[in-house]
Amino acid sequence: MHTTLPDRVIARLVGYRRLLEQLHGDGVVYVFSHSLAQLCGVTAAQVRRDVMELAMLGNPAKGYRVEELLSRIVAIMDPPHAQKAVLAGAGRLGSALVSYFNEWSPKLKIVGVFDSAPSKIQSVVHGHTCRPLSELSRIVRRQKVDVGIISVPAEAAADVAARMIEAGVKGILNFAPVKFDVPGDVYVEQADLTVAIERVAYMARHCVDRDPRNAEGAASGAVSE
Amino acid sequence: MHTTLPDRVIARLVGYRRLLEQLHGDGVVYVFSHSLAQLCGVTAAQVRRDVMELAMLGNPAKGYRVEELLSRIVAIMDPPHAQKAVLAGAGRLGSALVSYFNEWSPKLKIVGVFDSAPSKIQSVVHGHTCRPLSELSRIVRRQKVDVGIISVPAEAAADVAARMIEAGVKGILNFAPVKFDVPGDVYVEQADLTVAIERVAYMARHCVDRDPRNAEGAASGAVSE
DNA sequence: TAGTGTGAAGCCATTCACAGCG
DNA sequence: CGCTGTGAATGGCTTCACACTA
């Protein structure tokens, strides 16, 4: 198995897992690559490739055992012990993110919310008392936090990132519309909403059919391929 | 020039534009590919390629004219007339998005906010009166909206997307953790925060140096391969 | 001489296509 | 038969390398 899976694969595994949990809950025992593919919006070949990465074998007659596939993905994706994160920037977006991740990423525990504005300090953001940025480093170090979420304005982002990295964070989810360079052992995921919306707006204006396999009839029956 | 630029290019252009605006404001007149590259976190070769897409020429002695480069990017990225968007799902994330886009994407105007919860209807979300989802279609059609933003729960997303598409939206920014299939002339950008955070968490746990140009310090000789 | 412009090469990720098997 | 497993082919994006120019 790869030391670390490519990030595209990780993204798809998250999708598969969601579907598999649902199927498993529904009592489905086996699933074919093409069913899973359809449900996740990828190709069947892609699913088979990804399954190969998991070093798992399916059965030509029945497909893949849902439970087994699910447990392999969980083994890869879920941390052995709960992973901790801090969030910097308790503005509107920041506090929405706190509640979002609290609700939807139970495996990742937010252990600190920080902001520089005196007006925010000590306010309670969805159960977390907001602290001054100066305390970020201490908390990260003491609690061995390895994920940081940045939702501060662009001007402040580089400084916040530097603090996080210096304190030992290894992964950063950055919502600020700037890039900063980081040591090679730190992973930064850009979640730049400005880029996202501009891209959508651009594509919407240039809407030409760029789908090779056009065929509307999603509703029609078999996937004849 | 391409009919429609690849989305990776679009993302970088947004980054260049931000930097160029700043440089232009600072009175800088020319910029070299490697300066811009460094500031945007890409390679110089990449910048030159992208500039080539814009069919623009630089000057080996001085670099690129900031103003010219900026205006070409703006010409491509900015819509001729203000583009309209609707947002479905006025929860915490949704309302944070409304204020975020109001503030940071002045070229895109949100003309409607929708939700299905009776408790939300008629409430005012950052200046927008929240309306029932049943009115989405009418508004989209009447105002010729071509961008939709989805921040409803996963279960409701497919239905909302279908309404938007049926009413004529050509680009969707989807924050719900599901995929839906769409006609080939509709562009969907997944902004799945669950995937983003899981990916960061995974990478943080597997933090190995994956930077090729790490260089000096330790190791022996040149990068032999 | 340092930087641009660009064909060619390299690198991935995805898809194809087909052997093998229940 | 239809589906899995997988080498080979494809295609797109990025980087290299070098002729060219101010």
Which helices and strands occur, and which strands form pairs?
Two copies of one chain form a homodimer.
Chain A: H1 7-25, E1 30-31, H2 33-40, H3 44-53, E2 64-65, H4 66-77, E3 83-88, H5 92-104, E4 108-115, E5 124-125, E6 128-132, H6 136-143, E7 147-150, H7 154-167, E8 171-174, E9 187-190, H8 193-205
Parallel strand pairs in A: 3-4, 3-7, 4-6, 7-8, 8-9
Antiparallel strand pairs in A: 1-2, 5-6
Helix pairs in contact in A: 1-4, 2-3, 6-7
Chain A binds a DNA duplex (22 and 22 nucleotides) through α3.
Question: Beta-strand percentage of chain A?
Answer: 15-25%
Main beta sheet of chain A:
7 strands, mixed
Which two chains share the most extensive interface? A-B, 71 and 69 residues
What pattern of helices and strands is seen along the backbone of chain A?
A: HEHHEHEHEEEHEHEEH
| Widest sheet: strand ordering of chain A | 5-6-4-3-7-8-9
Helix content bin of chain A? 40-55%
Report how far apart the termini of chain A are.
Answer: 31 Å
Helix-strand category of chain A: alpha/beta
| Discrete helix count of chain A | 8
Shape of chain A: globular
Q: Which blocks of ≥5 consecutive residues of chain A have pLDDT under 50?
A: 215-225
List how many beta strands of chain A DSSP finds. Answer: 9
Mean pLDDT of chain A: 92
Assembly state here? homodimer
CA-based gyration radius of chain A: 21 Å
